Amino acid sequence: MNLEEKERKSGEVVVNFTLAINTKPSVVKFEVGGVATVAGKDPDIKKMLEVDPETKVPLLLHRVYQQVFKAIFLLAAIVNVPNPPPDLLFSTAKRGSEPLDQNKPGSS
Question: Is it true that the peptide bond before 53 is cis, omega within 30 degrees of 0?
Answer without folding.
Answer: no
